Amino acid sequence: MMEGDMFGNTMWAGHWLWMLVIGIVVVIPAWRICQRTGYPGWMGVLILIPIVNLVLLYFIAFSDWPVERSGK
What we know:
By secondary structure, the protein is mainly α. The chain has a domain at 18-62. Helices cover 61% and strands 0% of the residues. The longest helix has 28 residues, at 10-37. It is elongated and about 65 Å long.
C-alpha cells in the first residue's frame, strides 16, 4: 500500500531500543528505592507493569519500611 513510506521496517528496531532505554531509566531508580527502604530490589521491576506500578508506589509510601524497623 504505502511502499515508499518514511518509516518502513526499521522503525521496529528503533522502537524496541527506545523502549529498552526507557525501561532501564525507570527501573534503576525504582530498584534503588526498594533497596534503600529495605525491600528486595527486584520489586523495582514491578514499576513496568501498569496499575501494579501505582500499587507499588502507594505500598512504599504508606507501609512501615523494614530498614526503619531494624534501626539501621
